[in-house]
Amino acid sequence: MEIEEINKFIEEEIKRLEKYYKDKDNNELTMAIGFKVVEEIGELFNEILKHKGYQRKEKLDKMNKKDIKTEFADVIFTVLILAKRFDIDIEDAIKIKMEEIKKRDY
Amino acid sequence: MEIRKKTWPKYFQDILDGKKKFEVRLADFDIHEGDVLVLEEYNPETKEYTRRSIKKKVNFVTKFNPAEIHEIDEIKEHGFWLIGLGDDNLNAKQMQEKVDKTIKQYGGYWEPLSMMARITEEIGELARAINIKYGGKKSKFEGDGREIEEELADVFYTTLAIANKFDIDLGKVLMEKIEKSHEKYKEVYDDGN
Q: Model ipTM?
């Protein structure tokens, strides 16, 4: 899968969201999209706890239809949608960051 | 003003345990709200101070003369009740103790990072609840996303648990923080009035 394919998907997704949230003001929509990231991060940690054998029974029952694999995709998608809200070229941003990290001493 | 008074061991212990939150004293001295009362434990049998003492802030004081309300004979016959007025609201310390009890009952504390994972998860659920109510997000099915208050309570519970884990007196730290930010804002917003 090429990044163009993901980009196209994200663009369609954000158009759908903007239509859906047409009554929202711009800042509020950005927040709503941002908190979607928080929600997905939360679900990812729920999966992590599950893998450690830590989760409460009731939560395990509710969550077992989802697995950790798609939680990663959820996190990435919500982040990409948020970045799109800020008109950020994520491919470019990743390249810049990779160069920075390579230069770090550990 | 600081006022020092003798206290008998039985009463001293009750004050120390937080059970006795009042003092009854003969009004032969001056005392005002805001004063500090230093209660020094005194053993009436050995007639010696035990060297234990406790400091309390006076947040309420009133004076009355029982002889004006009742017949002296009645007072002599019945004496007085001293009644403590509590309420159902727990303070932060009591909440932490309750959480501690519950956690120890169900398997004990997790490692710090796992607790952090838990609070992250709860924050995520709170974000979802608020987004459903105020962010125009549709719930996926009936009853999806619990009430904000419940999610907030989950975050709070985990916060108290983390405080316990690190031996933090959260109420105390919170009060210090409020005090500090109050000082900071006073500088910023106070226009001298």
A: 0.77
Does the pLDDT value for residue B7 go beyond 90?
yes
Nearest to B114 among A24, A43, A49 (CB): A49
* From B121, B127, B137, residue closest to A46, measured CB to CB: B121
> Measured between beta carbons, which residues in chain B are less than 8 angstroms from residue A20?
136
* Contacts of B95 by beta carbon, 8 Å cutoff, 6+ apart: B160
| Residues B54/B12, Cβ–Cβ less than 8 Å | yes
Q: What is the DSSP letter of B33?
A: T
Q: How many C-beta neighbours within 10 Å does residue B143 have?
A: 7
Number of domains in chain A: 1
pTM: 0.65
Q: Backbone phi, then psi, for B6, in 5-degree steps? A: -75, 145
Cβ–Cβ contact B128 with A under 8 A: yes
Residue with tokens 């006795």: B20
pLDDT tens-digit series, residues B122-165: 999 999 999 888 876 666 665 555 689 999 999 999 999 999 99
User: With 90 as the cut, is the pLDDT of residue A60 above it?
Assistant: no
All residues at 6 or more sequence positions from B36 whose CB lies less than 8 Å from its CB, including other chains? B1, B2, B3, B55, B56, B57, B58
Going along chain B from its start, the domains and CATH numbers come out as 2-78 (2.30.130.30), 92-189 (1.10.287.1080)
